[in-house]
Amino acid sequence: MKVAVIVCVALVVSALLGRRSAAVRHWVLSCAVACAAATPLLGLVAPRWQPGFGAGSLVQQVGQQMELLSSPSSSPADGSTPRSRPGAWPADTRRVAGALTMVWGAGSAVSLFVLVAGLWRLSRIAARSDRVRSGPWAGLAGEIAREYGVTRPVVVLESADPTLLVTWGAWRPKIVLPAAARTWSEARIRIVLRHELAHVRRHDWLIQMAAEVLRSAYWFNPLLWMACRCLRQESEQACDDEVLARGTQADAYASELVALARDFAARRRAWAPAPAVAHSSSLERRVRAMLNPLLNRTPLSRRLRFATATAMLAVAVPVAGFGPSPSPREPDASRESTAAAPRAEPSARNLPVAIVAAVTQAAPAEPATLSGTVRDQLGGLVPDVTIVLTMVDGRSRVATSRRSDQNGFFEFANLPPWDHYELRAQLPGFRTRTDVVRLPEGARVQWDLEMELGSIEETVTVVGGAAAPEPALDEGQLQRRRDFLRSQRDADPCAIAPAGGCVRPPVKIRHVNPYYPPELEVAGVEGVVLIEGVIGTNGFIATPSVRPGAHPGLEAAAVAAVTGWEFEPTRLGGVPVDTDITVTVSFDLNN
C-alpha cells in the first residue's frame, strides 16, 4: 500500500503537470520509481507516525482487532476470557497467508523471467550482429554523440532482424539497427540517431529497467503497470522534443516516424526490453505532440531535478514511516494499558500540492555564458563582426546581438540555459555562418568562429543574331593591365592592416564574350548555363563545373569563354587566396 501511495501521487502530479514538458513529467515518474523501490529501507529509518482519533488511533484499533482474531480458539479451564498470544496465527490464517505468498512468488518469477528472457534475446542479437565501423551511421553517430555530450562509447550494430531498432545498455550503450538500415537516407539516419542518442544521454534504459524490476516485484498492483507505461511514453516524447530542439522540422520527423512504423508493421515484431523509436502503440500520441507548435519542450534543469527529487522524497519518507509506534509490553499488563499511543496529526495530507508547487515554482536556473573569438581563414582576428544569438523554442525567437572587438572577441553573459541557441555571424565579403549551440546550466562555453570568404557572382547574356564576338585584347594591353594592378599591391591597405578580415576583391583583367553557336541559333535553341568554379591564386578559373539542364552545345560555348577569363586574384590580408565564383550565361534569341 505504501508503494501504491507513492506511485499514485506521482501519477496524479504528472497529470497535473500536463502543460510542462515531457522531460519534467518523466523525471517526476523516475523519482517516484526510485522512492518506491527504497520504501522498505526508508521504513527502517523514517520516524513512525499515525493519525489520531480520540483515545486511540485507527491503526492501533485495527491492530487490536487483528490480535483478537489471531488468538487461539480454545478457552482456559477456569472459563475466564481467553488471552491472545502475540504472533500466534490460527492454522487457517497461516494456510491463506502461505497460499498468497506462493501466488505472489509465482507472479514475480514469471515477470522476472520475461524480463530476463528479453535481455538474453537482446544480448544474443548483439552477439550475432555486425558492428558498423564506417559509413554514414558511424560518422553521424560520433558527430551527434559529441553534440549531445555523450562520453560513453556507443556501439552501433546491424542485425539480421528486419524490424529491430532499439537502444539498450547502461555503461556501454548499443544501438541495434534493422537489416535495411544501410539503405536509409541521411535525413532518416540523422533523425534516428538523434532520438536514440537522446535515450543514451538521459539514461532512459536504466530508469526503465529499474521500473520493470519494481513492477515485477509488485506485479499485482495496477498502478505500477500504469507508471511503467507512462514512463515509457514520456521518455519517447522527451526524446522527440530533443530531436526537434536540434533543428529537425516537425513535419519531416513525423513523416519519417510514420514511414518507419509502416515498414515495421508489415512484419511481426518481437518484444524487447528497450526503447524503440517507432513503437506503434504510442505513435499517434507522439505525432500529435510533435506537430503541436504550442507544446512546452523546455529541457530539465539541474535545479528542477533537485527540487522534484526533494519533493518526492518528502512524500516517500512520511509514507514509509506510517504505522503504529512500537511500545514495550509488560508481562502482566492489560491490553488496554498497552494500547495507548501518542497522537500524530496527518502531516502528509497536502503533500501532492507541495510537489506541484516545488516543480512549477522551482528557483531559476544558474545562467550560462557564451564567448569566443572570430578569425578569418588565414587565422587573423576579425573585428566588427555582427554576431546574433537567437533563443529558439519552437514557438518564438528571442535574439540579442554583439560586435566583435578589435581582438575579434565577443561574449554573451547571463544567458538562460537552453538546448537550442542559434549563433549567426555576418561580415561583408564573407559567408554568413550559422551554428547551433547548447548552453547547459551554469556553463561557460567557448565557441570560436572561422569566417569563410564569400563567393563572386557574374551574369552574362548572349543575344542571338548579334555580331561576332569582339576581338580579345592584344598581349601588350593585357600586360599593361597586369603591371598596373601589380603596382597597386604595395599600396594595398590590407597588406599592412594589423587585424584580420581585410579583403580586396578580385579584378578582371581579361574578359572573353561567349558566342552563340550558329547551328543552335538557327535551330532556335535557348537556355541558361550555370557554371561554378574557383578563381585560383594564379587568376584563372580552374576546373569549372556545369550544372546540367542546358543544351551541351550551349554549355561548351559558355565554358570555352569563361575559362579564358583572367583576374587579379582575391587578397585576404595582402595574401592571394582562392575565391568561389558562379557565372550565369543566358542564351536568348528574343532579347
How much is the average pLDDT?
A: 78
The helix content, as a percent range, equals 40-55%
Query: Could you say which structural class the secondary elements and strand pairing correspond to?
Result: alpha+beta
Give the strand order, joined by hyphens, for the main sheet.
1-2-4-3
* SS strand fraction: 15-25%
Report the sheet with the most strands, covering strand number, pairing sense and barrel closure: 4 strands, mixed
Give the total of domains: 3
What is the rounded distance between the termini? 87 Å
How many helix segments? 18
User: What overall form do the CA principal axes indicate?
Assistant: elongated
Give Rg in angstroms: 37 Å
Instruction: Count the E strands.
Output: 21
Low-confidence stretches: 53-88, 327-362
Tag the structure with descriptive keywords.
TolA/TonB C-terminal domain; 3 domains; 4-stranded mixed β-sheet; 18 helices; Immunoglobulin-like
Account of the protein in words:
With 591 residues, the protein is α+β, with helices and mostly antiparallel strands. It has three domains: 89-300, no CATH class; 368-451, Immunoglobulins (Immunoglobulin-like); 456-588, TolA/TonB C-terminal domain (2-Layer Sandwich). It is 42% helix and 19% strand. It is built from 18 helices and 21 strands. The strands form six sheets. It has a four-stranded mixed sheet with strand order 1-2-4-3, with helices on both faces.
